[in-house]
């Protein structure tokens, strides 16, 4: 199994849990078909490189999509990994997914406003998530990438509390990706 450099016991347990739960529902990456758990491990690797990264942040990065994509509950996360990890995972879990709330643009605006208020630790993890997702989407779905990149631009404007270096990297990837998409669509 891939691992995050210097992974401690909490992160190792989170990696095993994430892999098992994503595989249990047969989840695969949309564009590549690779096992989904590769994505949270990549996010956690970026987070682990942040100077202020804590074991709870790394574990939450590994678990960041578990509540959205599997049958796992926040109580399960807390029981297995503690309150701090559970809080971070809940901060990273989309809250506005019901189409009855409104169209995609409206739901994403609500989510952006919510993410602007989450902890700096959760915002740091979200920056890494954006980086990993952006590279995949731009490379494989230029049409959707236009919508996605506009949403991520607004999200990065709103989310200012996380690790500054990782935020700069997310901005750099966004700007580079916007240029690629402009080049593809000319």
Explain what you see.
With 186 residues, the chain is mainly alpha-helical. It has a single domain (9-185), classed as Hypothetical protein af1432. Helices cover 70% and strands 0% of the residues. The protein has 10 helices and no strands. The longest helix is centred in the last third of the chain and has 22 residues, at 164-185. The radius of gyration is 16 Å and the shape is globular. The mean pLDDT is 93.
Summed up, what is this model?
The chain has helices at 9-24, 38-48, 55-63, 66-69, 74-81, 83-92, 104-115, 120-140, 142-158, 164-185.
Key features of this structure:
single chain, mainly alpha, Hypothetical protein af1432, 70% helix
Please state the second-level CATH architecture: Orthogonal Bundle
**Proportion in helices:** 55-70%
Q: Could you give the order of the helices and strands?
A: HHHHHHHHHH
What is the helix tally?
Answer: 10
Quickly name the level 1 CATH class.
Answer: Mainly Alpha
Q: What is the gyration radius calculated from CA atoms? A: 16 Å
Kindly state the number of beta strands.
0
Overall residue-averaged pLDDT value: 93
CATH superfamily: Hypothetical protein af1432
Per the principal axes of the C-alpha atoms, what is the gross shape?
globular
How are the elements arranged and paired?
Blueprint: H1 9-24, H2 38-48, H3 55-63, H4 66-69, H5 74-81, H6 83-92, H7 104-115, H8 120-140, H9 142-158, H10 164-185
Helix pairs in contact: 1-3, 2-3, 2-8, 3-6, 3-8, 5-6, 6-8, 7-9, 8-9, 8-10, 9-10
């Amino acid at each position: 199994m891939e691992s995050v450099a210097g992974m401690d016991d909490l992160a190792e347990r989170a990696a095993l849990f994430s892999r098992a739960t994503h595989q249990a529902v047969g989840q695969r990456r949309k564009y590549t078909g690779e096992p989904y758990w590769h994505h949270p491990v990549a996010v956690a690797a970026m987070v682990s490189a942040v100077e202020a990264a804590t074991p709870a942040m790394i574990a939450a990065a590994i678990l960041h999509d578990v509540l959205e994509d599997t049958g796992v509950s926040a109580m399960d996360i807390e029981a297995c990994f503690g309150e701090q990890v559970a809080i971070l995972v809940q901060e990273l879990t989309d809250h506005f997914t019901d189409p009855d709330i409104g169209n995609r643009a409206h739901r994403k605006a609500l989510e952006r406003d919510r993410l602007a208020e989450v902890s700096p630790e959760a915002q740091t993890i979200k920056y890494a998530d954006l980086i990993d997702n952006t590279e995949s989407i731009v490379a494989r779905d230029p049409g959707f990438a236009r919508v996605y990149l506009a949403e991520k631009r607004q999200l990065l404007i709103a989310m200012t509390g996380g690790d500054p270096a990782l935020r700069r990297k997310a901005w750099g990837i966004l700007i580079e990706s916007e240029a690629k998409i402009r080049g593809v669509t000319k």
